[in-house]
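Here we describe the complex-level prediction in full. Unlike the single-chain runs in Section 2.1, the three entities below were treated as one system.
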Amino acid sequence: MNSLTKIAFLVVALTAAACTSPNRFGGNSVDLNDSTGGFGPLGSVDDPSSPAFFNERVGDRVLFAVDQSTLSAEAMVVLDGQISWLMENPDYAAVIEGHADEQGTREYNLALGARRANAVREYLITGGIAASRIQTVSYGKERPIAVCSEESCYTQNRRAVTVISIASLG
Amino acid sequence: MSIGTYISAFMHAALLLWLIVGWGLQHDPLPFEVTEVSVVSGEEFEALVRATSPDAITDAPEMIADPVVEENSPAPPEQTEETVRIVEPEVAPTPTEETPPPQPLVPPDQEVDVSDTVPVLPDFQPPSAPDLPPSDTPTPREAPRVAPEPIAPPPEDTAIDDLVQESSEPSDVSEAEAEAEPVEATAPEAATTEIVTEAETPSGAPETTIRPRARPVRPSPQPQPTETVEEDAVSNAVADAVSDNAEDAPVIPSGPPMSGAEEDAFRRSIAQCWNVDVGAEWTRVTVTIGFSLTREGRVDGEIRLVNAQGGDQTQSNAAFQAARRAVLRCGASGYDLPADKYDRWREVEVTFDPSTMRLR
Amino acid sequence: MKRLLVVLIMICTAVPVMAQNGPLRLTITDGVIEPLPFALPSFQAESVASVEMAQNISRVIADDLTGTGLFRQIPSSAFISQQETFTQAIAFPDWRAINAQALVIGAVAVNGDQVVVKFRLYDVFLGQEMGSGMQLVSSVSGWRRLAHRVADQVYARITGESGYFDSRVVYVAESGPKDNRQKRLAIMDYDGANVQYLTGNVGLVLAPRFSPTGDRVLYTSFESGFPRINVLEVANVAPRQLATQAGEMAFSPRFSRDGRQVIYSLANGGNTDIWRTDLATGRHTRLTAAPSIETAPSFSPDGQSIVFESDRSGSPQLYIMSAEGGEARRISSGAGRYGTPVWSPRGDLIAFTKQNAGRFHIGVMRTDGSEERLLTASFLDEAPTWSPNGRVIMFFRETRGAQGVPALYSVDVSGRNLRQVPTPTAASDPSWGPLQN
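The structure predicted for the assembly as a whole is:
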């Protein structure tokens, strides 16, 4: 990836998203993690330095057990990949979103999501990522990725998602 | 022009329109509307009523003169200055008009008979399938009336009448019903013996249902005065007896005493009209009321408050009113009491103790 | 000695005779629980222009009363005598005959932009007026408040407790699919009428809370990308961010009863604790300092204590501590998880959300944790809020599954009279404001 491509991507991303507010669930912002497969604003999945590659190949999310915020072995593997990617792509910063399933009150789930996001943040920092590059936010149960009311969906919703953005804009 | 251009133009126009209308944009200056609610004084009200009514009000004229000044009366408009902001919502909501009638008032169907049989455990599936509209409130087996004795729901076409004895009386009621709804039988309203909350419906286990129950800590249900009065009576009696005991004859009731069954029937006939609002604060109050009965079993004269325990003035008053309503209502056509024992029940004092029913 | 014996004999004979003397004494402990039947002949219209208004006001008063579950309206078809005018004498026997226990009569006049309502309430079986006649005035557009005011009066005179009909509820109006729900703050009358929106689509807004006087609303907003507490003036719909202690997230705010302080949750480093901010001085006080989650705080009416939710024991439970922080006492003891405690305005009960065996409940318990009663049960019931008189609890109920939507419900503190509150959109997170003045 040459610098020209990078600038082109930047421009596209800027125009599309207008800002990199982590509030990507808000009314008119664009979901950077919405992988478009081929060559979208996130770059090619096959380009190891593209956000698309991060989302698809490295893995942008880790899952948690009910009420838990401890990282599983699988989660650590994914996070190790994230650490490597962030090391190689120092221009990017990350906002870690903590989420919970719908079993629980709004207030408790917000706090639980904060715990989960923080668990990921701590792990990334321990892995050598500068603390200043990582922010956290919790959405509690407000933004499920799977909408059914079954354990199959709840499993996917108890998650922490690492959302990357260009550091200088973050 | 291409379709795209048309769409684009249309969308832009719509966007512009939206921006002009500004609905949903939070920082728009918003129109104000002042709602003022005020209460006029008693004098004003009196004057006003006089003005509109040249004839005297026959039934309660003196009440009008009462001052209407109340602690919680709304402030006069100039003080109110209260501005209710009205943003016209795009979806003009007129929800109340469309509110369905309150479900709990619908006489429940067959399931109501909760007497003592343990119901079959219902399925644990929540009744609402995903597609059901949220308005489809699952109605638990709740009868609007909770009474000591369960009453099976009446046949569909029966008018509900709280007082069976009223409907059996040939005078006003039958006339009334003949006028209003000609051929209607009446029956007591369906009643369960327990409050059935939604939370208790799924298991149906009797031990989890809320029977209005005794509190761990509660004021002594027996009103004190009963004892003290009797003590006084005893000491007075002794004094009287010692001095001259010949004069008391007219006070001593004649005839045989009321049997336990007779007292019990009397008690029940009042209790069925004692409506206890179990969530109300007045259920902290135990009241004793006193009244006289005519030979026909009708209340004669005023019902007095003998004693009230456990609450403040407002609560005591509400408890008194409920007790008084019970006696007046169930006795509207006269209590059925043994005529030969009139002297035993000519004077009555009833203590209403809600402590085993209350929920607060 | 002989004299004493005589006295003793006198006493022995006198006592049983005297015990039967005086009134017959009965004690009743078992009453009935049923709606009190009332008659409300449509209020008299004092001019042709008032006819529709008189009907509307009569209907709202009757709806308020029947909506409590404590009253039942007798249909006018059953009336024996019609109350033609406000000043006409009351034919009490006619109302007794149809078992009306309370009778409300009234009249309505529309004069230009003004509505005038007058009413009287009668205890039918006593044959007397309860309280005295009253007249209320408002602008035509405020007619619903007039009706609510009358209903509040009737309610208060019969129950001995203040009413709650002339009050408003702020809530979150929801739209859109479950995985991208749009949320806006909205305000409405307690019965779902007069909905107005307070925010646009500015990202997530959660859990609005009325101030004790109803002039301000606290809520959690994601407008900045992170949860922050906003305070909004209801009169001019002006929101601003509340200056809280710095942290990653601030949420779950509530006012103190005097409106001078705000308690809320603050998350830092993944740990959520409870803080208090004094609005006048801007001073922030940390009230809990445990590694566990402490959230959903609510003041007692006297401002001395705070009830909150904590998972320090391993699962979310309810605790009470001093308003200054410090040692907390656990009050919930049943099976399951407890959350969102709210102290009743009367001070005697705490309403909460309980999650147990795959179901959610709204329940109440005493402040010492005793006498827990569950009032509702469904797939998801959450966020109780008390009516201003502490008699009714409003909450939201969300249906199950991908199409699941929330709606507002109310239930009497006895567990009776569960009913949906109509709203034009899906709705959640209600907060019941005070009686208006």
